[in-house]
Amino acid sequence: MNVTIESNPGHTQRISSYLRKRLPILIPAITAFLLTLSSSTLARPNIVFIMADDLGYGDLGCYGSTINNTPNIDTLAASGLRFTDFHSSGPMCTPTRVATLTGMYQQRFGPKFDGAISGVRDYDSGLPLEAITIAELLQEKGYSTGCFGKWHLGYKPPFFPLNQGFDEFRGLGSGDGDFFNHIDRSGREDWWKDNERLPEEGYTTDLITRHSIDFIKRHQNKPFFLYVPHLAIHFPWQGPDDPPHRVKGTDYANDKWGVIPDRSNVAPHVKSMIQALDDSVGKILGTLEALNLTKNTLVVFTSDNGGYLTYSGGFKNISSNGPLRAQKSSIYEGGHRVPTIVSWPGKIRPGETEQTAHSTDWFPTFANLASVSIGNIQPDGVDLLPLLTQRQPLPERNLFWRKSDAWAVRSGPWKLTFERSQLGLYHLENDLGETVDLADSMPEKVDALRSAWEKWAEDVNRSAEQYQ
Ligand SMILES: [Ca+2]
């Protein structure tokens, strides 16, 4: 055919003229056809997001622990990208959950999200239902969405997962149910199926695992988003062989930690909790492998904040934040630099990254991964996919933390902290442990960072006004 056309100048001219007229119509039509083909015939990846609770930077073998055995999480790390500079948006449970699901700094929804919501003070509220979560976006685009574990964005319906984009929920609404009888610290039964209380026998970590695996099996033939916010290793510090502690109707505000015969050494209890957590990860990964889903599933393992080293009441030697300063609830690194691993065999080259990433980044990352438009939403986080799949550096940006009167801002290697009316300036590349305060010698750097923080605080406070 080509020979015939090229040998006849008249034909060639007519065809050129035809193409000139038709190309503007043909190209969009072909593009639309290819896009339809790609979304309908190429499977969109599944997302499995596993978040441990209060797991410290030094609690895993792949982050240097010599105490805990974590072979399954270590294998995940070896198969994927391990972050050394990943940060939870808050040093507590609720704040990080807000930012993870919405892509926004939690403070945009009100100052109460600086910290954990309380089963007394906040029992009748939760994450505003107007908040748009990544689960909602994925659900609208045909993903099956399941949440199995600790919600802590509301203690009861309507502030529950089914109103925030999840098709299914099993787990606890509060921040710390007993691992065996699932009684929260206010003495309420706290184990749910969707919007109903439904007691279930079993150790919390195992129940979360069982429901997660069941969800994967039921949805293996279409894209799914599985959110697994484990309760481990939050107190009560109960390993699988420890006793239940709580009784319905009793207030545990002053006795919430479990049965700890030797308060000076909580580590043995936590070690067995970590072992169970690692088993859970192994079972979930094993299910993906057995169903041949590994190559089409992005798996994240992270923690919602740093670990406790000590706790009032004489509790000591709890978990480890490695070389970092301070612990959960602090604006120093031990409060918010957390272990984070992302694995997607064949798409993400195994290795390690020193790029600085943050809880708010998951929302734009997952939206891009699933080819979901975020419309007018302007998340605070950035899309991690170019880093994950091509090792492209992330854009430069400042990161901010606020917990009540304490705050911090990070810019490159620099971090300015404010706690107990004191400013501190640290250079994290030279001083990861935040031991050398340079504030007095670098007043201009202090002023620039403080000014950035004030601007940020003003911005998030303005966003929060609609929820007051
Ligand atoms: Ca936590």
Please describe what this structure looks like.
This protein has 468 residues and is α/β, with parallel strands linked by helices. The chain folds into three domains: 2-39; 46-397, 3-Layer(aba) Sandwich (Alkaline Phosphatase, subunit A); 400-467, Arylsulfatase, C-terminal domain, CATH 3.30.1120.10. The protein is built from eleven helices and 16 strands. The chain has a ten-stranded mixed beta sheet, with helices on both faces. Strands 13-14-15-16 form a four-stranded antiparallel beta sheet, covered by helices on one side. It has a two-stranded parallel ribbon with strand order 3-12. Strand 6 (192-193) and strand 7 form a beta hairpin. The termini are far apart. Residues 1-19 and 32-41 have low confidence and may be disordered. The protein binds calcium ion.
Bound small molecules, by name, code or SMILES, are:
calcium ion
Q: Tell me, what's the shape?
A: globular
Radius of gyration: 25 Å
Mean pLDDT: 93
CATH architecture of the largest domain: 3-Layer(aba) Sandwich
The share of residues in helices is 25-40%
The CATH class of the largest domain, by name, is: Alpha Beta
* End-to-end CA span: 72 Å
Could you spell the SSE succession in H and E letters?
HHEHEEHHEEEEHEHEHEEEHHEEEEH
Structural class: alpha/beta
- Could you say what the CATH topology of the largest domain is called? Alkaline Phosphatase, subunit A
- Count of helix runs: 11
Order of strands in the sheet with the most strands?
7-6-5-4-8-1-9-10-2-11
Number of discrete domains:
3
Number of strands: 16
What percentage of the residues does DSSP assign to strands (E)?
15-25%
The name of the CATH superfamily of the largest domain reads Alkaline Phosphatase, subunit A
Which segments are poorly predicted (pLDDT under 50) over 5 or more consecutive residues?
A: 1-19, 32-41
| Largest sheet report | 10 strands, mixed
